Structure prediction request, 266 residues.
Amino acid sequence: PFFMMAAITTLTKTCRGRLVHSRDIPLAFGGTHSRSARVTRVFTPGYGVVLAAAAASSSSSSSSDMSSEKPEKSYERRMKVDNVSWGTNALQHCSSALSAVNENGPFNLALYAVDARPTKLEVRLDNLDDPRGSPSLVHVESFSRELLRRLEASWEDDGSFPLEQVDVEVSTAGANRALHVPDELERFKGQPLDVVWTNEGGKRRAETLMYSPDDAPTDGVQLAFRYAQVKANRGEKGRPMSRKKREEVLLMDAHAVASAHIHVDL
Prediction:
């Protein structure tokens, strides 16, 4: 039952000395991806694997922190390891574990973000072979096991990683992952993006767009976007976008873009 899975997630997040790995996956209803779920596998020494999943609707206002994902506040990639003494060491283990699973898979994974805090090490993975950059559960599990093996060895050898005091969570970058602008726009140019920017008049705007490099000025100074074919951009009662909107090109400077996230059409 849902309440039992939520309880398992809450309980295991209070435990130390185990590995959590999780990701957001779409749930299909009526042939469309209308909801998503946070799937978490918890490795607890002596108890095997606990699999917990909690569904989350974008319209819900009372979901728990394990069943809802908020967009990142910044599109900058986060490698925050300087706040704790063991952070740099943990990042090295993440990098070596990634190299090992990529070679043995073979996979094409990358580190999207690493955040080291006093009681938690959070690692987010990127799948360079997926259109949306989403690793599969196989990817997440393979990396999680390899990382845990290395962290346990580090703890047993010299105690350089405080495994008994730190929760380790491995996940994807999220369904609505944040992008680097302009670095990652070319990679995700076929994806609808939720873009927030300041226009020439100083007004803040937020629209669901698609990167359109062919429409950009030849001087390469401005970025070009078109409106994406998504529900939010359609007319009243689900009518198709107007011709004017389909053909409109929006130009903006890269520094004017506050954030860009992959759009999830709910």
Notes: Residues 1-17, 23-76 have pLDDT under 50 and may be disordered. Residues 32 and 266 are 8 Å apart (CA to CA). The helical segments are 2-12, 87-104, 137-157, 243-247.
